[in-house]
Write a structure and sequence with these properties.
Helix content: 40-55%
Number of helices: 39
Number of strands: 22
Protein name: DNA polymerase III subunit alpha
Catalytic activity: DNA(n) + a 2'-deoxyribonucleoside 5'-triphosphate = DNA(n+1) + diphosphate
Keywords: DNA replication, DNA-directed DNA polymerase, Nucleotidyltransferase, Transferase
Strand order of the largest sheet: 1-2-3-4-5-6
Radius of gyration: 33 Å
CATH superfamily of the largest domain: Metal-dependent hydrolases
Number of domains: 6
Structural class: alpha/beta
Pfam family, one: HHH_6
EC number: 2.7.7.7
Strand content: 5-15%
CATH topology of the largest domain: TIM Barrel
Length: 1016
């Protein structure tokens, strides 16, 4: 009888989660239920599972709407019925084809309302009658239709409070006040669950309607096998041909990677190919190979990472560049006969080339068979407060106050209502979006399982997320992009363009085994390098004196929050530096984790300890693996694993204390750790970056700037280029490109760095120059480039016309004469036909530092001098960064320029870690505890005088700050007669601030981590 139920997947309309919807139905004894979310099947598969758990017959349907207008409700007679409607919705969402007012759907029942019924009804078409409409059925024109009528008891909310929530959602969707929300935009107040007995009583005088409703429900079924493989089955035509091709390609790759007589590699390949064939994944490997082959043909660089790098077959196919034999990576972490869930490859491309790869995939495998996974973007409490507040009509200043202090208790009743409903909306889906990387390539058309949508990014998405995809049997291909790879790729191209040198950067032996690379690595000299440039990572590298590939692989994983949260990052550092001063917890830790000093560093380590120390089953190990990958959603299953672990430990005779400590470490890995192959992939890319930084530092930093850096702002990479011998030059219309470019050791900053210059103008300036020659003068430039006075002034201030030899002051006066009252439509008539009148301009003197302040205003950092040159004080500190290790436990005073600071929560409040450069340009780090920050807080970017105690922790010095003060710049000479503006420029100097809101990491004494076998 419930043919029209909405969940909150009816976005900004429904108020019930699938769980709540099904639970309420169950509590009322309802035995059949139809889910009809608006224009979506997002919740259908979860609905099926939840209903069957509760003994309810699930029936899928869709409520079709055009805007807020209800057209009809479709109810699938069988699974094929969903496919029919999916096709219509896909055409509407992706091709702009209107929804039909009257569809032709063979495998669906179609229900119209009394208000929009067609003149005649087909066999599968009916009219839904609400309880409040029963009184009008006595009219003669309706009596003949009673045999074609069914009960329409929509469900949208559960309680009166949720009806109000529904109205708020509708106001948000319509961007209007609640008080102005039209009634046509909301559902009826009767759209909640009423008991079957109540409904039957209401329709008792119309038994035909009651019976017809029951007949429809009885005729429907929703049969679907979950976990049936649904990816494209074969790359060739058959499974046998797939295996033949995969085998041939693998052995060709074997010769390339290992030579002809590597017995160990041969044995590993045979073993893997057998498992791949048994699990029917030959086609999956070949499709991935095909994508890589296209990428190589295009000259693109890729990185295959994740657990796929455990496979020697993937290595021989060129999908990954990690040798699993070198690092003892076991294939079973990626694929094994006991593993129920499918594997996936994570493959990165440069952010500039990824879309070309995506276009190839969509064209090669067909738009009906390829789509991105969807994802639900949820309402977040802080942002929803603004949305709800606007619906209630709160003014902007109150909304600002409320969003900054969401937990504050307000007396105002309206504000209290906003807070109450804001809390209720938390975690509600707000809109559907694209998974950042997960692509499905299906055997059957995807519309068999979902309607497709077209988000702004231009690639279709399915209406459900990766978790549902996995449950349905789809393995996703993760096609990712990153800026680090873009930097490497661009550097290699730039070196070939500017120096004529070709570098095979994918030959990792030139970087991994390079002596100077390892020296830079151990000193943390890694700014600009993928994954290893952050202050925390550079500090870790120095503490470990990391000077080889295997230690870097471990470092890439122990920096992750899971290992750090357990306290094992600190312990790893200690054991690495003091390998004779600890004992293994248990012999299993020595046997299984000897390479990492008995510490769980990778996901595989957790599984090893769970199986070999905890005695867990392979199935429990797989649940742990998925939890660590962030792919597991069942808390009940994890709790069962935990119970099994402790029970098994007791049976094996382990002490309760040791078992608790081991499980504490296991638990910390959930969702925050790497598998070893993933760390290895990152380490290879880090080495590639580092190699280029060392041997081609200027080209590398230019590429880092053009890829918009990494951890730091552009200024830091400009500084690195300068420290490497580069001459940094401001943009010039005759030398600069849109991007930053290099001529010898001269680096011209790109026009794209001028924020107030439109990107199309930044691109047009070099294009026009290449086409018609250099600009002879500013007047010639203005004739050829359609700029207004504001853009022209920015170019003058930054020195883009310095080739003319005319001072900025004079250029500005000329610009105002040229374009002062200029109208765009007059460009051709005036600029091309009338020569400019010659004026004699007065000679205007400029202060030596005016250019620096112009640069700060436009770029946010000075180019023609350093920030230290602009200080009022001549003091430069008595200790430099390179000497800090000599001052352990001593108080020092330094003058430094702030690069970045990281917020870190502690039990006593907020603290920060700062990164700075001294006057010599070298980096150092500081720690600022809450007690210090109370009196001496950060005051934005700029130079500071620092006083503190040096603490050298395993080769890495940090200054614990006791006092600090921001040092003033000289007055801005451009505003010598304007007191208010003389110190404005200093406020435009930037800093990098990273915020973390995780729980505080425990201190060493809080863990009480044993280094001796003192467990009872």
């Amino acid at each position: 009888m419930y043919l029209n139920c909405h969940s909150y997947h009816s976005l900004r309309y429904g108020t019930l989660s699938i769980d709540d919807l099904v639970s309420q139905a169950s509590s009322l004894g309802i035995s059949e239920l139809v889910l009809t979310d608006i224009n979506t099947i997002t919740g259908v598969y979860e609905f099926k599972k939840k209903c069957e758990e509760k003994g309810i017959k699930p029936i899928p349907g869709i409520e079709m709407r055009k805007g807020s207008k209800l057209l009809y409700i479709t109810i699938a007679k069988e699974f094929a019925g969903l496919e029919e409607v999916n096709k219509i919705l896909t055409e509407y969402n992706c091709d702009g084809i209107d929804l039909p007012d009257r569809p032709d759907l063979e495998h669906n029942f179609i229900i119209y309302t009394l208000q929009n019924k067609p003149e005649s009804l087909k066999e599968n078409e009916y009219i839904g009658i609400r309880q409040e409409e029963l009184n009008i059925l006595i009219r003669p024109e309706f009596k003949s239709l009673i045999s074609k009528m069914v009960i329409l008891q929509p469900v949208t909310f559960a309680t009166k409070k949720e009806y109000n929530l529904h109205c708020i959602l509708r106001a948000i969707d319509n961007n209007t006040l609640l008080s102005l929300l039209p009634q046509t935009e909301t559902c009826d107040k009767s759209e909640y669950f009423k008991s079957p007995a109540f409904v039957e009583e209401a329709y008792k005088y119309y038994p035909q309607i009651l019976q017809k409703t029951k007949d429809i429900l009885a005729e429907c079924s929703f049969e679907l096998e979950f976990s049936t493989p649904r990816n494209k089955k074969h790359y060739t035509r058959t499974k046998e041909d797939d295996l033949k091709l995969l085998t041939r390609l693998t052995y060709i790759g074997l010769v390339r990677r290992y030579g002809r007589n590597n017995e160990q590699a041969n044995e590993r390949i045979e073993k893997e190919l057998k498992v791949i064939d048994e699990l029917n994944f030959s086609g999956y490997f070949l499709i991935t190979w095909d994508i890589i082959r296209y990428s190589n043909r295009m000259g693109f660089m890729h990185v295959g990472r994740g657990s796929g790098a455990n496979s020697i077959v993937a290595y021989c196919l060129g999908i990954t560049d990690i040798c699993p034999l070198e690092l003892d990576l076991y294939f079973e972490r990626f694929l094994n006969l006991n593993r129920k869930s499918p594997p996936d490859f994570d493959i990165d491309w440069s952010w500039q080339e990824r879309d070309i790869i995506l276009e190839y995939i969509f064209n090669r495998y067909g738009k009906n068979h390829v789509a991105f996974c969807g994802t639900n973007v949820e309402f977040k409490y802080r942002s929803i407060i603004r949305e709800v507040g606007k619906a209630f009509g709160l003014p902007k200043d109150e909304l600002d106050e409320l969003s900054k202090n969401p937990e504050k208790v307000f007396k105002d009743e309206v504000v209290q209502q906003v807070q109450k409903y804001g809390k209720l909306l938390e975690k509600f889906p707000n809109q559907r979006s694209m998974h950042p990387c997960g692509i499905l390539i299906s055997e059957e058309p995807l519309t068999s399982f979902t309607a497709l949508e077209m988000p702004p990014k231009g690639f279709p998405i399915v209406q459900w997320d990766m978790h549902v995809a996995e449950e349905l049997g789809f393995e996703k291909f993760d096609i990712l992009s990153q800026r680090g790879l873009g930097t490497i790729n661009d550097t290699v191209k730039l070196i070939e363009e500017k120096r004529g040198i070709k570098i095979d950067i994918q030959d990792t032996t030139i970087s991994k085994d390079e002596k100077i690379c390892n020296e830079f690595l151990s000193n943390g000299n890694t700014i600009g390098c993928f994954y290893i440039e952050s202050p925390a990572m550079r500090g870790l590298l120095r503490r470990l004196k990391c000077d080889n590939y295997k230690v870097l692989v471990a470092a890439s994983s122990i920096i992750r929050p899971g290992v750090a949260q357990s306290g094992m990052m600190r312990e790893y550092i200690f054991r690495h530096n003091n390998p004779t001063q600890f004992e293994y917890f248990h012999k299993v830790f020595e046997e299984q984790l000897g390479e990492t000093y008995g510490i769980m560093v990778y996901q595989e380590d957790v599984i090893k300890i769970a199986l070999h120390f905890g005695g867990l089953s392979a199935a429990d190990g797989d649940i742990l693996r998925r939890a660590m990958s962030g792919k597991y959603r069942s808390l009940d299953a994890l709790q069962k694993v935990k119970d099994n672990f402790f029970e098994s430990c007791r049976e094996l005779g382990h002490s309760e204390e040791l078992s608790r400590e081991v499980y504490r470490q296991i638990e910390s890995f959930a969702g925050y750790s790497f598998c070893k192959a993933h760390s290895a992939s990152y380490a290879v890319e880090s080495y590639q970056s580092l190699y280029l930084k060392i041997y081609y530092p200027l080209e590398f930093m230019v590429s880092a700037i053009n890829n918009m850096g990494g951890f730091y702002r552009t200024e830091v990479y400009v500084h690195e280029a300068k420290m490497s011998g580069g001459q940094i030059l401001n943009p010039c219309v005759n030398k600069s490109e849109s991007e930053t470019t290099i001529y010898g050791n001269e680096i011209y900053l790109g026009l794209m760095l001028l924020e107030k210059v439109e990107s199309k103008i930044a691109q047009l300036i070099p294009q026009e120059r290449k086409k018609n020659g250099e600009y002879k003068s500013m007047e010639d430039f203005v004739k050829r480039i359609p700029v207004g006075i504001e853009t022209l002034q920015i170019l003058i201030f930054i020195g883009a016309f310095r080739f003319t030899g005319i001072p900025k002051n004079e250029l500005l006066l000329k610009a105002r004469v040229l374009l002062g009252d200029f109208k765009a439509e007059r460009r051709l008539k005036t600029l091309f036909e009338e020569p400019m009148k010659e004026f004699k301009f007065p000679e205007l003197k400029r202060n030596v530092f005016e250019d620096a302040f112009d640069e700060i205003e436009i770029l946010s950092f000075p180019v023609s001098c350093t920030p230290f040159d602009l200080l009022q004080t001549k003091y430069r500190g008595h200790v430099m960064a390179n000497d800090l290790v000599k001052y352990h436990k001593r108080e020092i005073k330094m003058l430094a320029y702030l690069i970045s600071r990281k917020h870190v929560p502690t039990k006593k409040g907020t603290m920060y870690f700062g990164t700075w450069i001294d006057v010599e340009g070298n980096y150092f780090d500081t720690a600022h505890f809450p007690s210090s920050l109370e009196k001496y807080s950060f005051q934005g970017g700029g130079c500071y005088l620092l006083l503190g105690i040096v603490e050298v922790d395993f080769h890495f010095p940090t200054i614990t700050i006791t006092k600090m003060a921001k040092m003033p710049f000289i007055p801005d000479p451009r505003y010598s007669h304007d007191e208010e503006k003389r110190f404005e420029a200093q406020e435009k100097i930037k800093e990098d601030v990273s915020m973390t809101f995780r729980k505080p990491y425990p201190q060493e004494h809080e863990i009480g981590l044993p280094r001796k076998k003192n467990f009872s």
